[in-house]
Every structure is written in structure tokens, then in C-alpha cells.
């Protein structure tokens, strides 16, 4: 299923992501052991000061690869945007997760976080140790 979704996202012109919203994109990151490019579909959150990626399980391959590499690319509709990544912790991470869950309209995705409906940052903070949250910084900055 991820392969099919990835292929569709790569060729389909993406919708603009509004501030406070999210959009599906493809994340490309070097594999932490192989160095080979790895692609996976992700929900990209847009905040006032940039983009965030959140994952309910920091042990998944893509967050582990992103932590190891410190950079990645966001792909969609034939476009590639390169980013440095900064792992977030504490209040900034909790706010990003809270905003992401408020924006996502997929019950299965929300359920993966194991948090109450519409969690506040205060409700997210105790669970952050099992999550991964990243800020994306344009590579040319």
C-alpha cells in the first residue's frame, strides 16, 4: 500500500498546505545503514514558521533514518524540496503533535498516537519519549 501511495504522490500535483493544515507528501531519506535513498509517504504539517513531521513511533525506519542523516527531501508532483532536519523535544514537539492531530482527518492515524481526542500539548508531553518530531529547515538556509 505504501508503494502505491508513494507512486501516486510522486506524480500527482500536490494541493497547497494551509497554515495549520497538513498534506500527504513523500519523504526521501538516506538509509542509516545502506545510505540508499528510502521513500515513504508522510503527513507534512505546516505551521506559521515552517513544516513539521511527526511520527507516533520513533523506532520506525523513517524517523530512525532521519535522525541518522539529519536531512531529507520532500517530494510530490515532480517537485523536490531539500531540508535539514532538527529533532524537536519538550513543548515545541508537544505543540506540533497537538496541531498535527487537530489537522488530521484520519481516525486510524490519530489512533496510532494513543492519545485522547484533541489532546493539548500538556497531554502530549508525557508521551513524547515514544514519538519523533522534526522541524524542516530549507537546505539553502
UniProtKB/TrEMBL annotation:
Pfam families recorded: F420H2_quin_red
Organism from which the protein derives: Microlunatus kandeliicorticis
InterPro entries per record: F420H2_quin_Rdtase, Split_barrel_FMN-bd
GO molecular function: oxidoreductase activity
Protein name from the UniProt record: Deazaflavin-dependent oxidoreductase (Nitroreductase family)
Superkingdom of origin: Bacteria
